[in-house]
Amino acid sequence: MSIGQERALTRKGAMTRQRIVQAAAELMLERGIAGTRLEDVQLAAGVSTGQVYHYFADKQALVLAVVDFQSDEVLDAQEPLLARLDTMTGLRAWRDAMVEHQRRLQCVGGCPIGSLGSELAETDPAGRHRVAASFERWHGGIHHGLRRMQERGELAADVDVDDLALEALTALQGGLLLTQIQRTTRPLAVALDGIIARISALRTQAGQLRRTGAAVR
Q: How far apart are the C-alpha atoms of 32 and 25, rounded to whole Å?
């Protein structure tokens, strides 16, 4: 279904499409993409085969919609936290929320976006690009906070905040994977504590440079 067709959906049609996508997302997170058939989605969503194919030409089209759905679910929920990543208090609140969320899930499921990406990376170029775009959006949210920190002089001008944001996202994803596998939040907590400690150290260095510069003047 094209973007124009999506815009033309009636309210009822949009709700039916959303129900199909949500059912597919839940099944794919539980069973994996390969283990989820369109027939399974049809039954879970309570729709007919014709309705599934009305909104999605094939399984790949549905998978792409699921990637977008999971991206919005994950990142929209984090938006208030990502908006405060320009302070150490905000970074720690983000860390605590990520760890607590995994604790509530009993460390089951991992990252919905990452799980999709691991299946699509070597088999579906379009899917891989869509997942990469989701991670770029996530990276952008982290980057924005660190950039504001740098603009206030709390990070030195020579700190590459793009790389630093990538380090944070990589720590998060690695921590989520090990948390899922080991069924304990410790890997995630350690990974995020490590990147936050690094950012804190960089802020301390920036403060020392400012004080040194003021003393010289």
A: 9
- Give the largest Cα separation in the chain, rounded: 75
Q: Which CATH number fits domain 64-216: 2.60.40.1730, 1.10.1660.10, 1.10.357.10, 1.10.10.10?
A: 1.10.357.10
pTM: predicted TM-score of the whole model, two decimal places: 0.88
* Confidence bin at 174 (pLDDT 50/70/90): very high
Classify each residue of 105-129 as buried b or exposed e, where b means 16 or more C-beta atoms within 10 Å of its C-beta: eebeebbbbbbbbebbeeebeebbe
DSSP 123: T
**What's the CATH code, domain 1-57?**
1.10.10.60
Please report which residue ranges of 8-123 form alpha helices under DSSP H: 11-31, 38-45, 49-55, 59-82, 88-104, 112-120
pLDDT value at 1 more than 70: no
